[in-house]
Amino acid sequence: MSKGNFFTGQPIFSQILSFIPRSLISKVARENRSDRYCKSLKTYDHLVTMLYATFNRC
């Protein structure tokens, strides 16, 4: 069974995150050294958390 481009069965939040390449976030974080003093919450995890909070009006 091949993977298609249809997003049936996935939550909308997961579909939105699939459009943001994780490699791009990693590249930008490395260039700006945003994970320099990070111990637990990396840049991508922070992005996901902030997007989730925004979409749920927290």
What are the defining features of this structure?
single chain, 58 residues, mainly alpha, 3 helices, 53% helix
Describe the protein:
This protein has one domain. It is 53% helix and 0% strand. It is built from three helices and no strands. The protein is flat. The mean pLDDT is 86.
Question: What can be said about this structure in brief?
Answer:
This protein is mainly alpha-helical. The protein has one domain (12-55). The protein contains three helices and no strands.
* Number of distinct helices: 3
Strand content: under 5%
Series of H and E elements: HHH
Q: Count of DSSP E strands?
A: 0
Find the structural class using helix and strand composition.
mainly alpha
Total domains, how many? 1
Radius of gyration: 14 Å
Largest sheet, in brief, is:
none
Are there runs of 5+ residues with pLDDT below 50, and where? Answer: none
- The proportion of residues forming helix, as a percent range, comes to 40-55%
